[in-house]
Design a protein that fits this description.
This protein is of the alpha+beta class. It is built from nine helices and 15 strands. The radius of gyration is 22 Å and the shape is globular. This is LigA protein.
Amino acid sequence: MPFEDRLGEAMRHTGGSFELGERRDLVESSLIRGRRRLARRRTAAVTGSVLALAVVGLGGAYAAGLVGGEGGGSSVAAPPKPTRQADGAMSGEQMVSLFKSLLPAGGTVTKEQGSGPGDPGTSGKPDASSAASVSGVFDDGNGPGLVALGVSRVDPAAEAGGQQVTCPAKALVDYDSCRTEQRPDGSRYMLLQGYENPNRGDLTKAWRAVLLTPKGTLVDASEWNAPTEKGSRVSRETPPLTAGQLKALVVSPKWLSVADSLRAPEKADRPVGSGPSAEAVEKQLIALLPAGKGLKAGEKGGQDGYAFVVVDDGKGKSLVQINVQSGMSDVVPEGATSTLADGTVLGLAKKPGEKGGAGVVSWIADTVRPDGFRVVVSAINSESQHKAATRTEPALTLDELKAIALDRHWLTLK
C-alpha cells in the first residue's frame, strides 16, 4: 500500500473510527480485545477525544512511525522555496521543503521524509490521496528531537473531527497540560503536552498540536524530546519546539493549500461493532451503579459503545468502564468463563492494572450473548490506570460488575 494511503488509513483510525486515539497506543485495555476490522484495536479505556490522544498525538505519531528511512542533514536557515506540480498538488519533496521553512531558524534537520498529494500513484501519475505527511529530526543545538506533521481532510461536523481538538479525560490519559482555543476564523486548536508512555517510564515527552478548520482541514503535529518516537534515549528535557513554535507550525495557512489537493473525506459510517451512543451507555451505566453504597459519580464520558465514570464511596476513587457492542460472537470473554442457561458466556477476572499505576488491580465481568451482543464492565482501585491505587480494592465487587453486565436494559440499546 502506498505510503500516503497507509498514513490515510492510520489517520482514519484516529479520527473516523483517533480509532486517536488510542494509539493509539490508544490506551489499550483488556475490555476491548477481540474487536474486528477498523474498530478492532479501539480501546475500552478511552473516550473519543482520547482515541485521538491516547496515543498522545496519534495523527502525528502515525506520521512519524510511517515516515522512516534515512534522510540527509540540512540547515533550515534558508530552505528552497517550495514549487508545485503542474496540477497544483505538492510532492513529498516539496512537503519537506515547506516543513523546513516553517521550523525555527538556526536549527538543522536530518532524516527528513515526506509524502504529498503530488507524488506519483500506482499509475505513475499524481494520485489524489487522503493525507499528506512530513517528518524530520530537528536540532536547535540543545539535542535532536523528532517532529512529525500530517495534513488531512475530515468532516468538520462529524463527532470524530471535534474529538481531535478536545482535551482527553484525565481519568484516561496522563498528561501535564492540555488547552484548547477557538480562533478568530472559526478554527479550533488544541495543544496537549504529555508523554509517549503513560507510566512515564522512559521520560519521553510527546507534545501534540492540532488545528481543525471550519472547512475540515486537519493539521496534526507531534514532537518528542528524543530522535525517535520510541526506542531512543531522551536527548533533551523537552521537545525541540516550544509551545508557541509548535503552534506556529500547525496554524500556518500554507498547509491549507496542501489540503485542497487531498481527496475529500468519505461519509463516515458507524464502524462495525461501534455500539450505541456514548450518552446512552453513560446514562445506563450510572443508573445501574449499586445503590446503598454511597457512590458519588465524578468525571465521566465516553464514545459510541463505551462509557466511563469515576466513583467514590468515601474510601477512595475508582474508575468504572463499560463497552457495549454487537457482532462479537467470535470473542472469548476475559477470565474464567461459564455458560449461562440462555447461552450467554460469562467471564470473570481479577488482574493487575495495565498502565503502570502502582498497586492498581482491575476486576472484570465480560459477557457475550449467543447473538454476539457483548457487554464488558471493569473497575479499578484508582481514578486512573496511570495513577497509584487509592484503595485496596475497586469500589464495585465482581458480583456487582456481573449484575451490571447481565442487566437486560442493555438489550434495548442493540
